[in-house]
Fold:
Amino acid sequence: MYKPLYPTLRHWNKDWLQPEVSAAIESGKLSSIACAKSPGVFIIKLFTEDFCAKLLQEVEAFQATGLPRVRPNAQNWHGVILNELGFQPLFAAVIDRLISPLAQETFPERFKSGLCAADHHAFVVEYAAGKDQSLDLHFDDSDITVNICLGKSFQGGGLSFFGQAGKADEDIHEVDVEFAGAAHGLMHLGSHKHLVKKLEGGSRVNLLLWCLDKDNPLLAAEIPFYDDLTEHLADRSNINDSWKSWDEVGVPCTFT
Ligand SMILES: O=C(O)CCC(=O)C(=O)O
Ligand SMILES: [Fe+2]
Structure:
């Protein structure tokens, strides 16, 4: 049984945010908290170091139970889907109050009246020796991706950005971004192609928020985020039948 360490972490609280971010929300001008590294790639620092440390502890407490889990996405093998651990209310509020107006200011042509988030996928990915150590070039199943480092200590493992999926320059390299440590993050369009460079040492754990706008064709097609994980689930069935009840019951969980 998994018993959350910090049940209150799952709900919106300004204390989780950097003071500049709270102030920007109050003033209704969010662009000051996003710094363009190159067109369409923004450096952001949204959550406090304390929040990031607690979230990391929460993930590690869950992993220590040895309970079955679904891989976080079709490429990363190591990590956890946070909404399976009860984080849906927090990230829905974060997207609504923070990411949506920020997307409107940073990508005004794309999100004229903000990102109308109809769904999201919140997960943690983990890189270390013997685990994932890099990620091939891809685009995300999202309209906006927020990617925030939770720790720990690492060398390498930065991101390289290329062009927009479907455009003539989609595979042309644009810019490299390294994570400066816990709480440092990025925001970009899901269609902005990227890869993760090889981790050279240590362990990097990042929070990913894939936000889907209401007009995203994935929603119209009613393709759930987990659809392309079927193959992985089939693999798991050979070694452990417990995944079969996963979708119905979620994580056995007690909240206090
Ligand atoms: O590990 C990262 O920083 C990026 C992960 C990523 O691109 C993804 O999960 O889609
Ligand atoms: Fe990605």
Remarks:
- Helices lie at 19-27, 49-65, 88-106, 217-220, 230-239, 246-249.
